[in-house]
Amino acid sequence: TSVRISDVYRRPTRASTPMPVPVPVPMPVPVPVPDLAASVPPMLDRVIAWLDRLRAARPAHLAVANLRIVIGFAFVPAGLKKLLGQPFTDPGNAGAFHDFLHAFLATGGLYRFVGAMQLVSALLLMTQRFAALGAALALAIATAITAFTWSTAKAPTVIVTTLMTLGLAGLLVWDLRRWAGLVTERALPPA
């Protein structure tokens, strides 16, 4: 038999080409993720119920009002020094803590801005009407100061700034009904 070159090198036609068989791809097994959104509201409801019972006590209201005023007054001298551009520590002092404060003073505008924010948060805290906003602003400032004092291991200052930060966090928890809308989809009715 004779074989022709056209038979050996024949191009396949579409009809003669078999269709590829799809290879099944294994589907990944879904990993169960805890539904945090479902667990926050019941937990939040319990905390708010406890706070509502605490709010019924007059001494608790007095303690919160006094805490707002004390923390507000604590921010006034530091804020005024910064706003006026005065050094926060003696320029002759040395060490990591003092070196940072001297460099912070040298920034000029940032130093004054932080002082202005300390005064604004102090004023808001002491108004009682806008105390929740003041506590949120002051907590950001106090947290930064606390991190700084812990990183430089300045013993008495660490205690004061940590207590101020914890007090401000407590003030935000006290006003949890106002902040609950930020972590849940449903609004909470007023107490």
Throw out a few tags for this protein:
191 residues; mainly alpha; 8 helices; 66% helix; flat
Structural commentary:
66% of the residues lie in helices and 0% in strands. It is mostly helical and 191 residues long. Helix 3 (58-83) packs across helix 7 (155-174). The radius of gyration is 32 Å and the shape is flat. The protein starts with a helix and ends in a 12-residue tail after the last helix.
How would you summarize this macromolecular structure in one to three sentences?
This protein is mainly α and 191 residues long. Helix content is 66%, strand content 0%. The chain has 8 helices and no strands.
Provide the fold topology.
Blueprint lengths: L4 H4 L27 H20 L2 H26 L12 H11 L2 H19 L3 H22 L2 H20 L1 H4 L12
